[in-house]
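As a warm-up, study this chain.
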Amino acid sequence: MRLVCPVIAAQTGAMHNTLATQAEPVGQPSPSEQMIQMTSGHIIAQALYVVAELGIPDLLATRPRTNAELAQTVGAHAPSLYRVLRTLASLSVFVEQEDRAFGLTPLGETLRSDVPGSARAWALVNCGVGWRAYGELLYSVRTGQPGFDRAYGMSVFDYTARHPDAMAIFGKMMVDFHGREVAAVASAYSLSDVRSVVDVGGGSGNLLAALLDANPSLHGTVFERPSVAETSVQWLHAAGLNHRCEVLEGDFFESVPTGGDVYVLSHVIHDWDEAHCLTLLQNCRRAIGPRGRLLIVETVMPGANEPSQARLLDLIMLANSPSGKERTVEEYRDLLSKADFHLERVVPTASPVSVIEALPALL
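Now compare it with the structure written out below.
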C-alpha cells in the first residue's frame, strides 16, 4: 500500500515526472518520494502533538464534532485547526465527514488519554518537551553529549525533578508505552520458585505489580528516588498489592536494599554509560545472595540491518540521556562480567523487550 503524505503529494508527483529514475511498479513511491516522506516526518509529528495537547481525540470519543465546535471548545483558530485535522484525516487518524465534522478512527483512538496502550503521553513527551532535544541531534553526534542538556541547560533527570508536570506526563508515558510489556515479562519469566523480588528503579511499580499478580506467593520491593516513590505507593495500593510489597527510597548509585532473591533492573541500564552501570551493577552484586538472580529488562540491539524498536530507542537515548544506549547481547555479557555477574540466558518476550538473566559469578 502506498503511503504518501498529502502535504507533499503535489511536490512528489511533480518530482516523479521530472527525475530520471528507473521504471518502478505503479503505485510504489520512488526512492525520492520515500526520502521526502521521511524528511517530512517532523511535520506530521507536530500535527499529532497539537491534537494530543489540545485533547481533540478525547473530545471525539463519544461522537463526531464539527471543526467549529472543536475550535471553540479548545480555544483554537478554527481555519488553522481545520488544516491540521484534514491533513491527519488523510493519514487515517481522523475521518472527515460532511460540514467539516471529524470522527475518530482506530488509529486516532490511540491518542485518547483513557484507552489501554494510549500513545498520547508518548506524543506529548517526544513531540513536546523532547522536541528541542531531537533538534540538537547533530550536536549529540558531534560531541557524544545529550542534546537535551544543550537545549535546556540541565539533564533530563534534573528537568523532570524541577518540573512536576513534566515528571507526571513522563511517568504516564512509561506506563502506557510499557503497558503490554509488563504482562509479557511476567508471562515469559516465572518467579514461582522465589520468595522475594526487588525492583531497583521500579518507577511507577507497574512491573512489580504484574510480577506479584503472576506469582501469588511472591513478596516485592520497589526501590526508587524520593521524587518517584510516592507514585509507586499509589500504583501498588490501587492494584490492591500493598500488603505484599513495600516501597523504599534511596539512590541506587549509593546502595540497594539487601535480602532479595531476585533483583530487577527494567529500563535502567540503558539510561547510563558504562561507569554508572558498573556502579549500579556492583551495588546489586553486593546486595544479592550467592544463589540470587539479576534480571535486566531491556530491548536488545539486533544484528546489522535488522529492523527493531531498539534502534529508535537508541537514538532517543542519544538525544536525551547522559551517555545511555541500547546494547547488544555481547555488550551486556561484557558489562555483567566486569561487575562479577555471568550472563546465563536471554529470554525473549511477546514484546520488544527481553529478560537478560544473570547469576553471580563464581569467585
